[in-house]
User: Which sequence fits this backbone?
């Protein structure tokens, strides 16, 4: 399994805007590959993930935001929600710039996340149903298991009634998502 050694660097305020733009482009790129611009996966601003959602994730209590750095270059980013009481943590956002795909960077970043939080009992995350690349990555590379399929027949419960995966507002994002879990310790 390809594992490129990367560094996780806390997000600097002066890099915040570019982090948001890089994040939006990475998510949009996946949707455009799958659907082109013909469907309703893009919001009114032409994005899969809104600025508001990313900002909410960056600014949320208990969240940690990092740039994924390779050879001094910003190649992606990650946002983690860390629960120090239960050690049940969430990977809210992980993205790699599309031009950096297939180089082992995502897997290297995931290994760095696990190393950063060895106390974690359970990791959770989610991804849109159409993003086969992400589904493959989480299941076949990182060892997550699909534990839920969110659709019109099943909507997960969250801490806040108007929140869905990644803290995004209920009316944003794909209607169908896979929920993943990785048990680290019983």
Assistant:
């Amino acid at each position: 399994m390809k594992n490129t050694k990367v560094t996780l660097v806390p997000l600097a305020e002066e890099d915040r805007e570019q982090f948001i733009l890089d994040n939006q482009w990475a998510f949009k790129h996946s949707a455009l590959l799958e659907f082109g611009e013909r469907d309703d996966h893009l919001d009114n601003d032409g994005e899969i993930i809104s600025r508001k959602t990313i900002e909410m994730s960056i600014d949320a209590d208990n969240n940690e935001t990092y740039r994924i750095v390779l050879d001094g270059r910003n190649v992606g980013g990650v946002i983690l929600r860390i629960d120090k009481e239960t050690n049940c943590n969430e990977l809210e956002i992980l993205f790699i710039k599309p031009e950096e795909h297939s180089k082992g960077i995502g897997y290297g970043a995931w290994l760095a996340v696990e190393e950063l939080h060895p106390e974690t009992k359970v990791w959770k995350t989610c991804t849109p149903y159409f993003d086969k690349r992400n589904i493959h990555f989480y299941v076949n590379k990182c060892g997550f298991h699909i534990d839920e399929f969110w659709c019109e027949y099943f909507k997960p419960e969250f801490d806040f009634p108007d929140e869905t995966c990644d803290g995004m507002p209920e009316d944003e994002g794909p209607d169908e998502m896979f929920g993943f879990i990785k048990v680290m310790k019983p």
In short: The chain has one domain: 7-183.
